[in-house]
Every structure is written in C-alpha cells, then in structure tokens.
C-alpha cells in the first residue's frame, strides 16, 4: 500500500475512532451526572432555553469526551500512519477543533468552558496522542 493511501486511511480511521470514543463518553455522561431537571440534552432548543440551569459539574463529561476522543483518534492515526505521524495526529486535532468551534456557536455554554475546551481538549491532546503514537 502506498504511504499516502495509508496516511489518508490513518486519518479517516482516527476520526472514526475518536468520534466513537467521544459519543461513547457523551452517551454515558447523563447516567453519571444527570442533566438539570426537565432538560432534554438531545434537543438543541431545550439546551438553549435551559443553559442557565447547568452547573460546572455538567461540563466535566463534555470536556472529557472532546479531550479523550481527540487523544485516542490522534494516537491511533499516528500509530498506523506510514509517515508524518505527528502531522496525521495534528490533522485529527484540527478536525475535532473545527467541530468544537462549531458546537461553541450552536450550543450555549459559559465562556470559561468554551475557552477551556477549545484551548485544551483538541490541539494539546492531539499533540500528546501524536507523541505517544509516534514512538
């Protein structure tokens, strides 16, 4: 298999695996830290109208989902890439960062969470995953 094809497949696989980790964590979060009473976390309008009810504890799992999804996706991409392992990991980080920026505009969240999430959950985690996966 040509290195460029293997690298493209590594990025696609990293995005898929990172997304699975992200969604897995998000799907169990409500069982560990239930959302405020009457909030449907699967309905954007419910989230917007109830944003003021969320406490800091409700943002733990979204942050973990974003950080761990990016970390796992980047690590996997770096591990299976044929070359440019750190670049493949960083592509994963930028992909998920774009998703995070999009969600920051769509889903209401406090400024502190948006800064924490966009600043620490994506590029730093991709860098760590790339370092581990490049070994």
Task: Describe this entry's structure for a reader.
- With about 140 residues, this protein is mainly alpha-helical.
- It has one domain.
- It has six helices and no strands.
Q: Helix and strand layout, with pairings?
A:
Elements: H1 3-32, H2 44-50, H3 60-80, H4 85-106, H5 111-120, H6 123-133
Helix pairs in contact: 1-3, 1-4, 3-4, 3-6, 4-6
The helix content, as a percent range, equals: over 70%
For the termini, the CA-CA separation is 22 Å
The structure class reads: mainly alpha
**β-strand number:** 0
Shape call: elongated
Give the number of helices: 6
Rg from alpha-carbon coordinates: 16 Å
Order of helices and strands: HHHHHH
The residue ranges in which pLDDT falls below 50 over 5 or more consecutive positions are none
How many domains would you count in the coordinates?
1
Largest sheet properties: none
- Give the averaged pLDDT, no decimals: 96
Name its key features.
mainly alpha; 6 helices
Give a short synopsis of this structure.
Helices cover 75% and strands 0% of the residues.
């Amino acid at each position: 298999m040509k290195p460029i094809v293997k690298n493209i497949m590594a990025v696609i696989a990293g995005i898929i695996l990172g997304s699975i980790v992200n969604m897995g964590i998000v799907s169990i979060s409500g069982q560990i830290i239930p959302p405020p009473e009457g909030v449907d976390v699967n309905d954007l309008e419910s989230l917007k109208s109830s944003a003021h009810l969320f406490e800091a504890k409700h943002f733990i799992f979204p942050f973990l989902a974003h950080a761990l999804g990016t970390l796992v996706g980047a690590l996997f991409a770096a591990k299976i890439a044929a070359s440019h392992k750190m670049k493949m990991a960083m592509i994963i980080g930028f992909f998920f960062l774009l998703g995070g920026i999009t969600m920051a505009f769509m889903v209401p969240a406090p400024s502190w969470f948006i800064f924490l999430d966009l600043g620490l959950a994506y590029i730093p985690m991709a860098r760590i995953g790339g370092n581990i996966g490049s070994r």
